[in-house]
Amino acid sequence: MLENVFGDNFANSMKRFEQIMFSKLNCISIGRIENVNFAEQTVTARIVYKRVYQDSTIKDYPLLLDVPFFVLQGGGNYIGLPIKSGDYCIVLFCDRNFSTWWDSGAEKEPESERKHSLSDGIAICGINPKSSPLGYDGQSVLWKLAHALEIDTPENAEIKAKNLNMIVEEKIKLANSSTDLLTLLSGLIDIIKGITTFGSPTSQQVSPASQQQLDQYKTTLEQLLEAAGG
User: pLDDT per residue over 38-55, tens digit each?
Assistant: First the structure.
């Protein structure tokens, strides 16, 4: 123990120094989002607890401005979440000033000697107090959405499942860049209504004109829909 080696005064001084040092060291804090700048991918965040100074004064932490927020990504792909005011986050304070990298992506020496500064935070959204837990069953992968969902890819998308149960409470739209399924089905119904036939009462055949319309419509449907295994 320090008391046994250096005496009480030195030991107390070292403990005091330790308290002062750690009181100024920023590592990880819980924050709450005040506003979001999606264009720059930053947030303004407020640390949710107070700061206690050496003279026992209790004050709010300053607002954390222009804090980059973490986006889960890789290989040019990313998941964008609609972060909003009031969301909680973890704020990680970097060991060194990262302003140069943040502003330009340049891998250079830090532009100042600040360490664990409130100016060098990164926000990771996705934490809640025990009083406001999510509906988390721990059994299934759940996407619980409060807003619209958009999946945007220039490549093919594929869902594989043993069984697929899709429930839409209102309407569903299936379309490509030139048409949609509702338009095609409506047109098909009109063609069926106008089908003409010829032949005896016991041997009716579709007229060539109606057959041509049906064949043309089959081609149009194939432009929107693909057969299994296609």
Answer: 999 999 999 999 887 777
